[in-house]
């Protein structure tokens, strides 16, 4: 017998208290794992001379494959240092708060898949980067252009290569709901989207989501089974309508352009850093592969300052998609219910401190998303009363 879904959903106050504790841990993890730990480790590499030790080790193995061996050794050391933190926050703590469905074997399987992908992408991109560094004085211009091309290529292959690598995907069999979703999608001109698939997120976690993925002929709608099983059909429609907003607003292309624009000054500043400090750390110029930790450290410091701007843009885009969903689905009560259910399901903080939201949040706070739904509902109620 199917589980009855409470609708509309209202906040569970016990869950709200739990979410505050969980959010504090996530905040600490973002500061420690995303900023403090890499800053300390990369600085230690450079100050201790470990970056040169790795280069000598790689040279003893192969001069021809020096760059590739250096990348593999450096990534392996960094991953070994980071592993205890990654394991605690993504496995132990997620289980502690009841968010994970992973068994130990399944977690390690996905962890090693992620490592494999990291090594493949890093070997390709860093090898190309250091070729450009060695052959072009204005390398940072070419690097920013290639960065944009890589993002677009990644979006194209994501639904056919990357996503199935991590998720079991099967056709969505609820024909009635599928037809309703596609009718909504086609009504705004996205007639080329005909594929709706179901991803088995329940094997990994209790978190729910949906997304439009792909570019060109790889476009499709992906629904997580945690969404289809745990949400009211009207709520599911608002989630898909939100993702449809990203598609109609061409957010992949806009986001790629935005990232590329930021990449130009970022790589230019890295260029200045390499030229300024390479000699101090015993490097043979900016294209010396032993300077990779310096490159990574410089980019990380720049990224720390760019993060608020990137997240401001992301929040703007997400707010536009929320408004689009209200305009297309016209179900404000369902959208508010969805926001509340998602907040409790994911243990999200509803009203974070403004500085925390400004720096760390790439989506508007749940409180603001709910207020938007109520605002839209009031606005349209007034319209009806006037007509």
Keywords:
387 residues; mainly alpha; four-stranded mixed sheet; 13 helices; 4 strands; hydrolase; zinc; protease; CAXX_Prtase_1; Peptidase_M48
What is the rounded Rg?
A: 23 Å
Tell me roughly what share of residues is in helical segments.
Answer: over 70%
Label the structural class. mainly alpha
- Strand numbers in spatial order across the main sheet: 1-2-4-3
Low-pLDDT stretches: none
Summarize the structure.
Its cofactor is Zn(2+). The chain contains 13 helices and four strands. The chain has 387 residues and is mainly alpha-helical.
Provide a descriptive summary of the structure in words.
The chain has 387 residues and is mainly alpha-helical. The protein has one domain (13-386). It has 13 helices and 4 strands. The protein has helices spanning 13-48, 50-61, 66-96, 104-135, 139-166, 175-187, 225-230, 233-248, 251-277, 292-329, 332-345, 354-360, 366-386; strands at residues 169-171, 196-199, 210-213, 220-224. The chain has a 4-stranded mixed sheet, sandwiched between helices. Helix 3 (66-96) runs antiparallel to helix 4, helix 8 crosses helix 10 (292-329) and helix 11 runs antiparallel to helix 13 (366-386). It is globular, with a radius of gyration of 23 Å. The two termini are 45 Å apart.
């Amino acid at each position: 017998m199917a589980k009855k879904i409470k609708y509309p959903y209202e906040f569970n106050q016990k869950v709200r208290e739990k979410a505050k504790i969980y959010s504090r841990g996530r905040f600490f993890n973002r500061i420690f794992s995303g900023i403090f730990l890499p800053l300390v480790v990369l600085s230690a590499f450079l100050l201790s001379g470990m970056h040169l030790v790795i280069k000598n080790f790689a040279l003893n193995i192969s001069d021809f494959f020096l760059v590739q061996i250096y990348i593999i050794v450096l990534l392996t050391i960094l991953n070994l240092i980071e592993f205890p933190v990654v394991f605690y926050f993504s496995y132990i703590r997620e289980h502690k708060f009841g968010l994970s469905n992973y068994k130990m074997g399944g977690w390690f399987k996905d962890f090693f898949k992620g490592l494999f992908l990291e090594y493949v992408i890093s070997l390709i991109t860093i090898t190309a980067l250091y070729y450009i560094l060695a052959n072009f004085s204005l390398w940072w211009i070419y690097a920013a252009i290639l960065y944009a091309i890589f993002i677009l290529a990644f979006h194209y292959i994501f639904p056919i290569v990357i996503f199935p690598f991590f998720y079991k995907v099967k056709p969505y069999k609820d024909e009635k709901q599928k037809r309703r979703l596609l009718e909504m999608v086609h009504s705004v001109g996205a007639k080329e989207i005909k594929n709706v698939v179901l991803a088995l997120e329940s094997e990994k976690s209790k978190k729910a989501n949906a997304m439009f993925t792909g570019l060109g002929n790889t476009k499709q709608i992906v629904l997580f089974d945690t969404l289809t099983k745990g949400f009211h059909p009207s709520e599911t429609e608002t989630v898909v309508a939100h993702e449809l907003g990203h598609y109609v607003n061409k957010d992949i292309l806009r986001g790629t352009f935005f990232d590329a624009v930021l990449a130009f000054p970022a790589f230019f500043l890295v260029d200045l850093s390499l030229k300024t400090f390479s000699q101090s750390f015993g490097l043979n110029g900016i294209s010396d592969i032993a300077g990779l930790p310096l490159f990574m450290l410089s980019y990380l410091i720049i990224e720390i300052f760019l993060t608020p701007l990137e997240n401001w843009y992301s929040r703007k885009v997400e707010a536009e998609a929320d408004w689009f969903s209200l305009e297309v689905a016209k179900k404000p009560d369902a959208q508010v219910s969805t926001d509340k259910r998602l907040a409790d399901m994911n243990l999200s903080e509803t009203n974070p401190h403004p500085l925390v939201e400004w720096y760390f949040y790439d989506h508007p706070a749940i409180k603001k998303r709910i207020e938007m739904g109520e605002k839209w509902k009031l606005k349209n109620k007034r319209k009806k009363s006037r007509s």
